[in-house]
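Why this split exists: single-chain examples teach little about how molecules sit against one another. For that reason, every record in the complexes split bundles all components of an assembly together and asks for one structure covering all of them. Below is a record exactly as it appears in the raw files.
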Amino acid sequence: MQYFIQRHPLNYDGSQLQSLFTYKNFGLMGDSVLVFRGSCTVEQNEMVDMEDVVAQDWIHSEDMLHFIVEHFDMDLEKTIVRQRLLIATIKEELEVRGVTTLRRSGDDLYAGDKKLSVSIATLSPVSTLVHCGLNISNHNTPIPTIGLTNLNIDDVFQFGESVAEHYCAEVLSMRLARCKVRGVS
Amino acid sequence: MQYFIQRHPLNYDGSQLQSLFTYKNFGLMGDSVLVFRGSCTVEQNEMVDMEDVVAQDWIHSEDMLHFIVEHFDMDLEKTIVRQRLLIATIKEELEVRGVTTLRRSGDDLYAGDKKLSVSIATLSPVSTLVHCGLNISNHNTPIPTIGLTNLNIDDVFQFGESVAEHYCAEVLSMRLARCKVRGVS
Amino acid sequence: MQYFIQRHPLNYDGSQLQSLFTYKNFGLMGDSVLVFRGSCTVEQNEMVDMEDVVAQDWIHSEDMLHFIVEHFDMDLEKTIVRQRLLIATIKEELEVRGVTTLRRSGDDLYAGDKKLSVSIATLSPVSTLVHCGLNISNHNTPIPTIGLTNLNIDDVFQFGESVAEHYCAEVLSMRLARCKVRGVS
Amino acid sequence: MQYFIQRHPLNYDGSQLQSLFTYKNFGLMGDSVLVFRGSCTVEQNEMVDMEDVVAQDWIHSEDMLHFIVEHFDMDLEKTIVRQRLLIATIKEELEVRGVTTLRRSGDDLYAGDKKLSVSIATLSPVSTLVHCGLNISNHNTPIPTIGLTNLNIDDVFQFGESVAEHYCAEVLSMRLARCKVRGVS
Amino acid sequence: MQYFIQRHPLNYDGSQLQSLFTYKNFGLMGDSVLVFRGSCTVEQNEMVDMEDVVAQDWIHSEDMLHFIVEHFDMDLEKTIVRQRLLIATIKEELEVRGVTTLRRSGDDLYAGDKKLSVSIATLSPVSTLVHCGLNISNHNTPIPTIGLTNLNIDDVFQFGESVAEHYCAEVLSMRLARCKVRGVS
Amino acid sequence: MQYFIQRHPLNYDGSQLQSLFTYKNFGLMGDSVLVFRGSCTVEQNEMVDMEDVVAQDWIHSEDMLHFIVEHFDMDLEKTIVRQRLLIATIKEELEVRGVTTLRRSGDDLYAGDKKLSVSIATLSPVSTLVHCGLNISNHNTPIPTIGLTNLNIDDVFQFGESVAEHYCAEVLSMRLARCKVRGVS
């Protein structure tokens, strides 16, 4: 499992949540995390979460730190558990940086009633995928939000790299943890 | 997914980490969390983690809050991801109670260099299982530890129930999250 | 597992056999059975069964009781076994109503050489799906058929609800049956 | 998928429900159905259904027609669905012989409140297994039962062969049904 | 598992690598191998291997012996192992015919630095698929190649049938090998 | 995936074919190949292949080069395909050393009618396992055999390491090959 930090701006419109995006654009073969920065605007027809479509919710943020995770197995529920762990990891990395006021609720992070994150997990024909976006700015969002800037995270790429690094290390450690236990009756 | 709080003392010696333990003793059928309190002493021949066996580590705690989780699917790696999420959930429930100094490292929780928890996940012939024990007392442990008492968690069953309740709710929410997304290309 | 009885007429043309149809239209999240009534006309390009396409068969019925079942796992063979059980359940519910002359042949129900049902199971990108339609009327069908009306089933929705209720209960009971046995050698 | 009719008497005590029993004793390699006749007495320590163990139920019948089914995949829930279909098939084969008074309830068959069958499905280290026993005699059973003799099934091996033949044919037809459909969106 | 030898010329342009191609065109239901002969030209937009797309490689051969293998399970890694075994089988069948100079490198066959084969494995919505093409002629290929003609294989259909026959027999023997072992501790 | 060459003699009696043998004895965590040298004597009660048990075959060789492969997934059929590929790899490594007279038949290697190898694949509670033994000496074997010595392979550990190295590299390359293709329709 590898990660790539794309430092050139890249806006997220939903089309990045497709299989092999990280491989085709940044050359990482196999399970991967891609980190980039840009706005986030997902139109209804690109939305993956049918709950949002049914509720006619829409997603917009001027400036976000994005993570795209791809796992080349086909168990969506498993990748949803991994997604929750990614969110917990983001929260933990913020704690290391002194931010201890966040609360995780499923795949969302909140400071009080202000939302820091959006996230979705889904299946492609060859893999499972997660998108997670963290507001950098909290301007002009359709619901009350908080951004990494409000949390005094100034070097967002450095922060993103810490998250990606820890997530990749944890995926590896979980794979090995599976290989050192005997079964029980 | 259901949980059961066993309030009568029950010491953990490793033999509780077997399939259908919660069903046979407490009647819960299906995925479950069992919470109980007692000492923790696991002899080498009951150890499941071969890394500990190879290292000749042993596990002892005078008084622990125990969680036994059983999932009736056979993907151990998936249950290890769930185990990590359980550990993150324990940390989050402690944060709600004002304990903000803990750090998660894989399936361990630490306050500084003092260990709060032990945990293992494994396979039975019909299910996957997790044990997690949290020190209540930190007396007489073979390595530096911290206990829930040191963290001012006095009602350990109430705390254990919060963890179990949140974990069960999250397992359900993850199952449903799998059922509301369209695939992508 | 839940079911929904849609009492407003809804004609089946094959496009209803798609992932999340029941969720998007009727709000049921997770494994589900949808019951509705309407004509059934599936053109060649909507057909899912390539055997019918190759044979240039076509499907038409003026008035059918329809079941759409969605299971959010990806094992098509398993859903085909469930489909056969659904057909057996339909037969059994008819027996409760005094119809003891039917014969099940795979996923078809017959009275003598007259066909009562059509059925297909397939995969979507996120789930497996079953359609089963039971003739209500047997007028103007391309092959000899029998309808629920001929079998004196007058309240087709009540009948459909019994089938859906029993199927959902059986899926639950099978899930639990998996969680109460020890393994053998 | 093959079946074997063992015409020499063989009493069932639970130890026959083990992996490769049919291969080791009767030479059938791969998915199989074994049919034999004999008494059925399963002691508590051989019981596989923990619900019966917890309830201290025991199983006894003087003379039964036994089916042991082995499928060499490891999805117990899938084999439980197959088990229900096997029970439905037994009922259908009895219908062909004029017995139209039976009712299936999960993996049990009843005539009124008299039980015809016992059945269990479980996992071995290399396969999944089903046992189903049908009372031939209804004498001296611990609960009210009915036997094949009461239903005027005199040639029980011929009947058993019909069941095995239909079950094997249906497993094959389900495997092929999986191979002739296109996916949907 | 069955095979079909299509003796009428059929050019490969990538569109043959789709689910149910062999069933729809040649009537084989279930796991299958199709053997045919024709040119091979795959344009960028039909390419399945993103590594080739990224490298802007293209595939062209005037005359090839083609194999299309379809397995109706969804584990792509497993089908990739089978693909490697197919390539080993092709090499072994050539050895029987006196060609002992070939070297297998993953899913490629070489004589010295001249390439004999192209191959790819992928997922469809209902199956996994392999294409393997062996040059018959080595004229006008974009890289140095060798053809079956250079290896003195004159009856390419007879050769193709041997490969298909051995592959099908080996798939069956592997399925049975899975059904005759006990588990170990 | 890693390999370990154990140069101290180690006799194979079947008990080495157990889960975590390579981890517990040689410290390799995760998928692994262990190579060692020693006699091979497997008594009936340690035999894994029930076909041999039924046939009352027994296995003996004075001096063998042994491979034990462990894969931490639970699909035995998949590991049997890998086993066949391992056998093909052994044959290919011998070809590099000038031995071009071998024939692979399933999981066996022959020179004419003399057998070079024994092999078996099975399941443990936490993994799948392969044993393959190649005769070094062909003295005193119960059936006609050939040994590596007869094939002029003098440095058997160097040869064993080549096999292990190529097998590990191929497992990795197959894992990556799964991660670079788009799906097809």
